[in-house]
């Protein structure tokens, strides 16, 4: 995700404000997570306002979460690729027998 | 993020269970977001249990969110790269004068 | 919180739909939590759009979370008073020496 | 919810630290919301580790959210009863025809 982190950094770097504080970014992440939840309830929940084929809004809400994580990562020098590799290693290690194989 | 989506799909495809339902994945995403929040409060909040230099746990919690988003995206045929491009276009379009430039 | 649970039940009972499914209510709770986060960032975060004295919106967002919890509790026969008593007992028991006393 | 707010205040008032900052409490609320989500997925989601009758853990997680909201409310002089009344008024006003009546 080096490319995504770099794109976000180039955008933020134009502005005086720079990155927000960690707990400010966290509050924003909670807000974005809530927007994805609302969108999913509109598609799969009790209200069903939207057809299941229309996926653009979900895609955009999911991407807003990734954008926010890139902000957090850049501001704290996190390497999301390294974190993701660690997550996959955990899948193939600790969690490999957690579910029944095909 | 094609590569991340593919890695997650290869792992999930080994198992009978397959992808969870959208609102189940959403609940998991909320759980993972909560774990990142806890980690940030340990680093930057009132408890300050951890040194600011130690970033591995934050990196891993952020990556668990990305992993969960890849599950959601794969199960609903979302293209996270397209969503991310849309997010960046919004930054350079609608939001370009939202903050003061350097 | 018997009174709040009862008020919510009287309102929901008028409608054919009844209570949503647990994971649907959970997604709604995530959405409401996100709205409170946004409101707090407007007041105390980087954007500071609002004066600290203006508390009505925060009060309303916090109450929407309580309303949603009452829906969950009613649909699953949870007694929020009993849960709250348990939380307070934990404070005076397990957590009583967690912070320095005055 | 005057009583719950008062109980929380009596407990917090014993300690030097006092209430956390708003965005710190928000991060904690996100963490507690995540714990409720995990508990709901254990009961109603793909893992189904727990019987539906066992409700104590859900009750306690829901109450931890209420406890955290009381902390936020006390630290910012919010009146949760007033907020809840506003939420119910909205139900009987703006939202009264949102769903089909019995």
Label this structure with key terms.
Helix Hairpins; mainly alpha; homotetramer; 0% strand; 102 residues
Provide an overview of this structure.
- 4 copies of one chain form a homotetramer.
- Chain A has 102 residues and is mostly helical.
- Chain A has one domain (2-92): Orthogonal Bundle (Helix Hairpins), CATH 1.10.287.
- Helix content of chain A is 66%, strand content 0%.
- Chain A has helices at 2-12, 22-44, 56-75, 80-92.
- In chain A, helix 2 (22-44) packs antiparallel against helix 3 (56-75).
- The longest helix of chain A is centred in the first third of the chain and has 23 residues, at 22-44.
- Chain A starts with a helix and ends in a 10-residue tail after the last helix.
- The mean pLDDT of chain A is 93.
- Chains in contact: A-B, A-C, A-D, B-C, B-D, C-D.
- At the A-B interface, helix 1, helix 2, helix 3 and helix 4 of A face helix 1, helix 2, helix 3 and helix 4 of B.
| Topology of chain A as a string of helices (H) and strands (E) | HHHH
CATH names the topology of chain A as Helix Hairpins
Q: Unreliable stretches of chain A, pLDDT < 50, 5 or more residues? A: none
What is the approximate shape of chain A? flat
**What is the helix tally of chain A?**
4
Assigned CATH superfamily of chain A: MazG-like
* Largest protein interface, residues of each chain: A-B, 55 and 55 residues
The tally of strands of chain A reads 0
Question: What percent of residues of chain A are in strands?
Answer: under 5%
Helicity of chain A, as a percent range: 55-70%
Q: Do you know the CATH architecture of chain A?
A: Orthogonal Bundle
The N- to C-terminal Cα distance of chain A equals: 30 Å
Counting helices, strands and paired strands, the structural category of chain A is mainly alpha
Radius of gyration of chain A, whole Å: 17 Å
Give the averaged pLDDT of chain A, no decimals.
93
Chain oligomer state: homotetramer
Please give the CATH class of chain A: Mainly Alpha
Structurally, how many domains make up the residues of chain A? Answer: 1
How does the major sheet of chain A shape up? none
């Amino acid at each position: 995700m080096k490319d995504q982190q770099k794109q976000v950094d180039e955008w933020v770097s134009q502005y005086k404000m720079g990155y927000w504080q960690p707990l400010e970014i966290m509050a924003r992440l909670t807000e974005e997570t809530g927007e994805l939840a609302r969108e999913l309830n509109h598609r799969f929940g009790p209200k069903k306002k939207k057809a299941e084929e229309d996926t653009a809004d979900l895609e955009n809400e999911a991407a807003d979460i990734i954008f926010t994580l890139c902000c957090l990562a850049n501001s704290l020098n996190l390497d999301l690729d390294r974190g993701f590799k660690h997550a996959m290693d955990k899948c193939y290690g600790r969690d490999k027998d957690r579910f029944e194989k095909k």
